[in-house]
Each structure stands twice: as structure tokens, then as C-alpha cells.
Design brief:
- The chain is α+β, with helices and mostly antiparallel strands.
- The chain has helices at about 20-25, 50-60, and strands spanning about 5-10, 30-35, 40, 45, 70-75.
- The strands form two sheets. The protein has a three-stranded antiparallel sheet with strand order 4-1-5, covered by helices on one side. A two-stranded antiparallel sheet has the order 2-3.
- Strand 2 (about 30-35) and strand 3 form a beta hairpin.
- The mean pLDDT is about 95.
- Bound molecules: iron/sulfur cluster.
- Iron/sulfur cluster binds next to helix 1.
Amino acid sequence: MTERKEFQIRFDARGCIGAGKCAEEAPEHWSLNLSTGIAEPQKPIIPEDELDENIRAAKACPARNGRGVIRIYDRETGEKII
Ligand code: SF4
């Protein structure tokens, strides 16, 4: 039996500059809280079929001089995806 792969979103809210690119790229997964000006992921753990959109969001994040503040890890192996 193969288990579904899961991925963990790690988001450094302190580095978020509220640019909203994540929510533009992946509106079903990221939203910008207008009262705090900080983004929020919909959920910390995502299945594989939601990985691509979250990778796009992570790549689009311009914070920290373009390095971004969204990281995604393979939950099982701990491998950093982005
Ligand atoms: S793209 Fe990055 S800086 Fe912009 S709101 Fe999303 S997490 Fe924050």
C-alpha cells in the first residue's frame, strides 16, 4: 500500500512584507490578512496534488531580497523542496 505523500509549509511571518504575491499565485492556498498585512497559509500540511501551486507561491514571494519566506519540506524525509 502506498501512502500519500504530504508536505509541510513553513512560513516565516516576521519576514512577510505583505506583497500578496503568494495569494495571487495560489489563491486557494494563501491569503493576505488585510488587518495584519501578513499572509496566511490555509493549512500547514498539504497533499502532493497541492504542491505545485504552493511551490509557485514560494517562488513568487519577494521578501528577504527575493529569497522568500515560504519553505516547503517533504514530511516523511525532511527534504527541503524549496
Ligand atoms: S508573497 Fe511573501 S511577502 Fe508577500 S504576502 Fe506572501 S509571504 Fe508575504
